[in-house]
Design goal:
With 158 residues, the chain is an alpha/beta fold. It contains five helices and six strands. Helix content is 30%, strand content 20%. The longest helix is centred in the middle third of the chain and has 12 residues, at 62-73.
């Protein structure tokens, strides 16, 4: 059985639009609030997932950065990452010492004025062996794209 996880962005909460969507449609999903600096957020995430395996993690913006950092440190536990405009261009990103083999599906808006899609694509292409990248005509929050994605399919392994 897969363990589904959603990690919200820096200025969002578990009660934001995406968190509410997942809570309603995937009630088994782990959806928590993360506060504090990057280290504090990562400690909470590590604690929440300490005994979990077969993880499918959805990370939005800063939450995408957290998801990637978690996968770098726990690749054996992660089955898939779904990254929504992940903030991989921030100083908190610690590049892995090797290419990760975790399947990664990344959606990024071409009109994102918060996280540069080109920088993120370059970083993701270097560190993920199984990257499926989608540049979509949308903004940072992916207002148009997010609700139209086939989440039932995305949240299954394989």
């Amino acid at each position: 059985m897969n363990t589904l996880v959603f990690i919200h962005g820096l200025e969002s909460t578990a009660q934001g639009t995406k968190g509410q969507f997942f809570c309603k449609n995937f009630p088994q999903m782990i959806i928590e609030n993360y506060t504090g600096d990057f280290a504090a957020r990562m400690r909470k995430l590590q604690s929440l997932l300490n005994d979990k395996t077969d993880l499918i993690i959805v990370g939005s913006s800063y939450g995408g950065l957290m998801a990637v950092q978690y996968a770098i440190e726990n690749e054996h536990r992660v089955k898939k990452l779904i990254l929504l405009a992940p903030a991989l261009n921030l100083a908190e990103f610690t590049p892995p010492s090797r290419v990760l083999n975790v399947p990664v599906i990344l959606y990024h808006g071409s009109e994102d004025d918060i996280v540069d899609p080109e920088k993120v694509k370059d970083i993701a292409s270097r560190y993920f062996a199984a990257l499926e990248y989608h540049l979509v005509p949308d903004d940072h929050v992916l207002h148009e794209t997010f609700p139209s994605l086939d989440w039932k399919k995305l949240l299954t392994a394989g």
